[in-house]
Amino acid sequence: MRVFVTGASGWIGSAVVDELIADGHEVVGLARSDASAARLEARGALARRGDLDDHHGLRTGALEADAVVHLANKHDFGNLAATNATERAATATLGAALEGTGKPFLLASGLAEVAPGRLATEHDPSTFHGPDSARGGSENLLLEHVARGVHAVAVRFSPTTHGVGDRGFVDVLASVARAKGVSGHPGDGSNRWAAVHVRDAARVVALGLTKAPAGSRLHAVAEEGITTREIAEALGAALDLPVASVAPRDVAGHFGWIGGFFALDMAASSALTRESLGWEPTGPTLLADIAAGAYTR
Fold first, then answer.
1. Treating both helix axes as pointing N-terminal to C-terminal, what angle do 169-180 and 228-239 enclose, rounded to 10 degrees?
2. Quick check: 183 and 242 in contact, CB under 8 A?
């Protein structure tokens, strides 16, 4: 298949491009810069210049492809309203282009607030609806397109998709720990984060492209729930820093914008994903990656 991938030069996107090419697909990646285009071409993909605000380019890329994988997000945590609006508009544009075609449309989603306090499953619907909600309610917007002839599939990524080179949430937590001189965890640290190695997450996307039923939700989850205390302890050991509890009232001041995410309980099962795709994660665990120095730069 010819697969149009947004976010193709990013952390997860680069791994997904490698998996898709290894499976024999032709990949066209959305590239915001000449440098991103060059990285894509070096991996064996084609580059299409543009960004998430280029709706004409998004529509053309989708129409010219046999499938779409939408991974890009602005991730501007200082202006979430604009980030969410962009995500919703891009999802709507890609979905409209694919209506009536039956083509696969895989979209990156997340596990925040899906089932706090228990393991989220693929049966649990997203609680985010409408343009003013997290990610612009893009998961629910995506799944509305199943009734419009789109083979829509939501891929929920763990809050940490880790590995050497990751500059995501755990890397931010490591930076906070270095700046504060202590590796902190919210409260008693009993809230949990699901985790997955980046290569395993990419394999979920590649398998989901051809195996996932329309309207399904996939969980790119290898470890169901690692407590934030365990994460803090692993970072403390790797960075040679003490570990301490941060009182709930002080979380925002201590951690900054990431504090709200680190205080969430985001544990999830991937049992249905493993069964439907025949997927089994093989990469290192999060704590093993931390111990091996993935976040000690």
1. 60
2. yes
CATH class, 163-194+224-291 region: alpha beta
Would you kindly state where each structural domain of the chain is located, as residue ranges?
Answer: 2-160+196-221, 163-194+224-291
Give me the amino acid identity at 107.
L
pTM of this prediction exceeds 0.70: yes
Per-residue model confidence as pLDDT tens digits over 142-171 = 999 999 999 999 999 999 999 999 999 999
State the 10-residue block means of pLDDT for the chain, 297 residues long. Answer: 97 98 98 95 97 96 98 84 92 98 97 90 95 91 98 98 96 98 98 98 98 98 98 98 98 96 96 98 98 94
Q: Residue 297 is encoded by which pair of tokens?
A: 């730069």
| Amino acid at position 106, single letter | L
pLDDT tens figures, 188-213? 999 999 999 999 999 999 999 999 99
119 within 8 A of 269, measured Cβ to Cβ: yes
DSSP 66: S
Q: In whole angstroms, what is the distance from residue 194 CA to residue 178 CA? A: 24
Query: Would you state the CATH architecture of domain 2-160+196-221?
Result: 3-Layer(aba) Sandwich (3.40)
Asked if residues 93 and 141 have their Cβ atoms less than 8 Å apart, the reply is no
Inter-residue long-range contacts of 253-260, CB under 8 Å, 24+ positions, other chains counted: 254/176, 254/180, 254/184, 255/173, 255/176, 255/184, 255/186, 256/176, 257/77, 257/78, 258/77, 258/169, 258/172, 258/173, 258/176, 259/186
Nearest alpha-carbon partner for 114 in 202, 228, 170, 194: 194
Q: What is the pLDDT of residues 263-287, one digit of tens each?
A: 999 999 999 999 999 999 999 999 9
